Amino acid sequence: TRTIYTAGRPPWYNSAGQQVEPFVIGICGGSASGKTTVATKIIESLDVPWVTLLSMDSFYKVLNEKQHDMAARNEYNFDHPDAFDFELLKTTLQRLKEGRMVEVPIYNFVTHSRESRTKTMYGANVIIFEGILTFYNVDVLKMCDMKVFVDTDADVRLARRLRRDISQRGRDLEGVLKQYSTMVQPAFYYYIAPFMVHADIIVPRGGENEVAIELIVQHVHTQLQLRGFKLREKLAHSYIGQPLP
Ligand code: C5P
Fold first, then answer.
1. In what helix (H) or strand (E) does residue 55 lie, and over which residues does it extend?
2. Rounded to an integer, what distance in angstroms lies between the CA atom of residue 207 and that of residue 126?
3. Which of 26, 23, 28, 41 is nearest to 212 (CA)?
4. How many angstroms separate the CA atoms of 8 and 111, rounded?
C-alpha cells in the first residue's frame, strides 16, 4: 500500500487522532423535485471542503436487449425498485462511509446505459446521497445520518420533467407523458411518497427554500463539530495521510 499525504484523501482525523466518520445526508423526492439543486445549495453553503455527491442514477442496472427495446418505447419501468442495483449501491455507500475510494458508474440517460468509464470518488467529511428511492431500502436508510425529503408539487415536477427530458435526455413529448402516467406517477405513490415518514426534515418547494437549506447546513456543522471536526480555519491541520485501499 502507498501512503499519500495530501488533502482530499479521507478518512479524516479529529484533534484526538480519532477517525471522523463522514456525515451522510440522504435526499429523497420525486423525479424533478429539485433534489440536485438542494444538494448543490447545501454544498455551496457548507463550510466544509470535502463533500461527495452521490446520485442513485449511477446505480441503474444494465439492461438486456429486450429491456433496452422497452426503454426505447418508454415502456421500461425506471421508477420501480427493481431497476436499481441496491447491492452495489450499499457497498459503495459503505465504502465511502469508511473513507475508502470507490469507482462509481456513470449513467447515460440518452442511451439508457452505463458509460465505459467510471468516476473515482473518495470518502469525504460530508457525503450527500440523492435519488428517487433513497429511503426505500432499509440498509441504505440506516446509513444516512440526516434524511431530507424534497416535497415539490406534482404539476411543477411534471413541467420540469417535460422540459428536461426533451432538451437533455433525448425524449419526445408523447413518450415523456406516456412514461409519466404509466410508471413515474404510480411509482411515486407506491415507492416514494409513503417513505416520507422517514424524513427528518421535509423541504417544501425544493431549492428555492433558502431557510430550509440554512437549517440543514447549521445541523451538519453542529454534528461535525460534535464529532470533533474543526471547521475551516483549523481544518488545514486536522487531517493526516492514509494508505489508499
Ligand atoms: O433526476 P431524476 O431524479 O428525475 O431521475 C430519476 C428519473 O429518471 C426516474 O423517474 C426515471 O423515470 C427516469 N429515467 C429515465 N430513463 C432512464 C433512467 C431513468 O427516464 N434511462
1. strand 51-55
2. 19
3. 41
4. 33
Residue 60 Cβ contacting ligand 1 at under 6 Å: yes
Model pLDDT for residues 79-117, shown as the tens digit of each residue: 999 999 999 999 999 999 998 999 999 999 999 999 999
Residue nearest to ligand 1 atom 6, measured at CA: 31
Of 68, 36, 233, 48, nearest to 124 (Cα)? 48
C-alpha cell belonging to residue 190: 407506491
- 203, 35 contact by CB (below 8 A): no
- Cell matching residue 155: 404539476
Answer yes or no: are the C-beta atoms of 76 and 84 closer than 8 Å: no
CA–centroid distance, 235 to ligand 1, in Å, is: 38
Q: Rounded to two decimals, what is the model's pTM?
A: 0.89
Question: How many angstroms separate the CA atoms of 140 and 123, rounded?
Answer: 16
